[in-house]
Amino acid sequence: MKEIVPSPPPIVRNDVASVQALFQKNVVPSYGRFDIALSHGSGSHVFDVTGKRYLDFGGGIAVTSLGHAHPAITEALIEQSRKLVHISNLYYHEPQGRLAEAIVNLIAPGKVFFSNSGAEANEGLFKLARKFGHEEGRYEILTAINSFHGRTLAGIAATGQDKVKKGFEPMMPGFRHVPYNDLAAVRAAVSPATIAIMIEGIQGEGGLTMASPEFLLGLRKLCDEKRMLLFMDGVQDGYFRTGRFQAFQRILENTPGAEKFLPDGISMAKSLGGGFPIGAFWARAPYGDLLGPGTHASTFGGTPLGCAVALKILEVVREEKLADNARAMGEFLKASLQALAKKYPQVIHETRGVGLMIGIELAANISSLPGDTTKTQAVLFVNLLHAAGLLTIPAGANVIRLLPALNLRQSEAEEGLKIIEAVAAKLAG
Ligand SMILES: Cc1ncc(COP(=O)(O)O)c(C=O)c1O
């Protein structure tokens, strides 16, 4: 390993300020970053450049499905890079075909297109919908208020949050937002130009709100009735995070009449590559054939290297039964957090989510929260967790998201809970 991953140059050693200075001078400042410079990790732990150890409950925003520095990922990268890293999509190669087959087998007959990111996976579905409706002049896609679908121009037009659109107007036409979990409102919003509906099973960036089984079943019925496509954005909530491959499968478990529910398209990315950038969309048969040769492409979509890594991750997820682990750890975390909400109601309002996609909604106006009052409560709380050695992700102004690795251990779940409780107890006074 040593010769493959050489040590970083001295400037990134033990000095957060030097790393920050590199960013301030050279990196576009489009991200609000925390004052942490990370250096390396192992499993569910990461270390910053000063040597401080953190338990990672953020998972790189639902990406590091196997944690950090997993030997299976390293081996897959090395093994495949000795054969082929990239060849372009002008040619066939086995890893892409095998990964597409694995995804089809996990969902239902259909076809897969590979991209590099979640936004790009969604773009592909938007194009597929427009192609489907083109001859009839139907092009409009309905998405939910508070949704998040990526930062490209179509992504921000699709996203149901004003903050991502501000300053980038005019928006790309063809998107309208409808209330989440309000079937009657969606039905009323459908126009003769509407061709598709896209929703998240669990709104991640929007603050951890889950679609109800009735909403999902109702959308399917509405789409069938009006010949519209139903898309699920599974970029964040997918890939076994909820205990099933896709969040809708978990949401609809035990719902009578839901066995046959299937969307027409699903976007994915994040955990699929465990940190290696790869995204994909699956389109149900026969819609998977709508985008013929020359209609859609991506230079880096589905490289041999990316697909080999994704195939290896899938193998580990299966062998180590990580879907079951996500379910069990999620239940344990959620129940424990609910107990904390009861114990410290002045700090924690409630806990939402399922599997390893959990949101902790803070109480309104926690007066004891220290720090810059121009920052949201979520950011201030996350700062306290950081200081105590736990990485988590803010979602909206008042929710903390937990999106740890799918192979999180019981002892790590307990370690994280202890830190959250210590911070909550201190704030509760
Ligand atoms: C639901 C959802 N869709 C799309 C995206 C965009 O993915 P990416 O950042 O890989 O483009 C995200 C990213 O957070 C997401 O959560």
Radius of gyration, CA atoms, in whole angstroms: 22 Å
Helix and strand content put the structural class at alpha/beta
How far apart are the termini?
Answer: 48 Å
Q: Specify the helix fraction band.
A: 25-40%
- Average pLDDT rating: 96
* Unreliable residue runs: none
What spatial order of strands do you see in the largest sheet?
4-12-11-10-7-5-6
Count, helices: 13
**Which H/E pattern describes the elements?**
HEEEHHHEHEHEHEEEHEHEEHHEEHEEEH
Tell me about the largest β-sheet.
Answer: 7 strands, mixed
Give the distinct bound molecules.
pyridoxal-5'-phosphate
How would you sum up the global shape?
A: globular
Number of strands: 17
Percentage beta strand: 15-25%
Could you explain the architecture of this structure?
It is a single chain. By secondary structure, the protein is of the alpha/beta class. The chain has 13 helices and 17 strands. The protein has helices spanning 16-26, 59-62, 71-81, 94-106, 118-133, 153-158, 183-189, 213-225, 247-251, 304-319, 322-343, 377-387, 410-428; strands at 38-42, 45-48, 53-56, 110-115, 140-144, 175-178, 194-199, 202-203, 209-210, 229-233, 265-268, 279-284, 348-354, 357-362, 390-391, 393-395, 399-402. The strands form 4 sheets. A 7-stranded mixed sheet has the order 4-12-11-10-7-5-6, sandwiched between helices. A 4-stranded mixed sheet has the order 1-2-3-15. It has a 4-stranded antiparallel sheet with strand order 13-14-17-16. Strand 2 and strand 3 (53-56) form a beta hairpin. The longest helix has 22 residues, at 322-343. The chain is globular. The mean pLDDT is 96. The structure holds pyridoxal-5'-phosphate.
